[in-house]
Amino acid sequence: MNLLIMGLPGAGKGTQAEYLSTKYNLPHISTGDMLRVKIKEETRLGLEAKGHIESGNLVPDEVMIGIILDRFNKRDCKKGFLLDGFPRTKVQAEELDKMLKELNRTIDAVIYIEVGQEKVVQRITGRRICKGCGASYHVIFNPPAEIGVCNSCSGQLIQRSDDNEETVRKRIEVNAIQHQSLLEYYNGKGCLFTVNGSNPINKVFTDIETILNNLSRSAVL
Ligand code: AP5
Ligand code: MG
Ligand code: ZN
């Protein structure tokens, strides 16, 4: 299965992608996570990306397309993939189609997690990330068993450097502008499915499962 997961910052892309990648055994490819690794490693690309990310802007298309091209060459993508946070512009979507055409593959479904702007601000400002394994929590909606400590690896929970309210509002504005043309693009291809992301995490997950199960059933019939 080749899947895309879309939504505003804080809509729950990463949260749902983690569950989905486990259930369907797909590599979770989050361009945001990949950029954060490059920043941590202080590569040239990471240093360039840092400025864009911390100001709430997008990293240039050519950089992102290069990152995805590299990633698709890895073995684990041969069985399918779950893209989180890519494409984010129409140029990226068109380039993705070209890459997939060369690989004789198509996108099976684009899952759009729809959540209102005020709600996502609340979600992002309450998000905490494990410094050790990257697991994501929320101080109210998805708290760890012990405050400030990761359930899986006992690592310290911290806030992402782009999760302050000012940057969050900018990220939302930038992404909302791009979403319109992306949603039209995928709707035109007949592969867009929208779920109500205001629901609790488990309900969003079962709604996505239903969509994917119906999809595989219609592929068999
Ligand atoms: P990225 O890391 O992708 O950030 P983002 O799009 O802003 O999205 P987030 O990761 O903040 O949110 P999410 O939807 O994953 O939500 P989560 O599941 O964590 O990208 C970062 C930056 O990199 C971009 O701003 C850009 O600069 C750059 N970049 C990346 N890709 C790019 C591209 N293709 N082109 C150009 N630039 C690019 O959930 C959020 C919180 O809410 C968590 O605390 C979670 O526990 C909680 N939560 C989740 N679901 C629910 C629910 N249903 N109910 C209650 N709480 C919930
Ligand atoms: Mg994310
Ligand atoms: Zn951890």
Q: What does this protein structure show overall?
A:
By secondary structure, the protein is an alpha/beta fold. It has a domain at 2-27 and 74-119 and 183-220: Rossmann fold (3-Layer(aba) Sandwich). 50% of the residues lie in helices and 15% in strands. It is built from 8 helices and 8 strands; from the N terminus they run βαβαααβαβαβββαβα. It has helices at residues 13-24, 31-40, 44-54, 61-72, 90-102, 117-125, 165-188, 201-220, and strands at 2-7, 28-30, 81-84, 109-114, 127-130, 136-138, 157-158, 192-196. The chain has a 5-stranded parallel sheet with strand order 2-3-1-4-8, with helices on both faces. The protein is globular. It starts with a strand and ends with a helix. The mean pLDDT is 94. Bound molecules: BIS(adenosine)-5'-pentaphosphate, magnesium ion and zinc ion (ZN). The site of zinc ion (ZN) has 8 residues, from loops. Residues 130, 132-133, 135, 150, 152-153, 155 line the site of zinc ion (ZN). Catalyzes the reversible transfer of the terminal phosphate group between ATP and AMP. Plays an important role in cellular energy homeostasis and in adenine nucleotide metabolism. AMP binds at residues 31, 36, 57-59, 85-88, 92, 160, 171. One of its GO terms (molecular function) is AMP kinase activity. Belongs to the adenylate kinase family. It is found in: Cytoplasm.
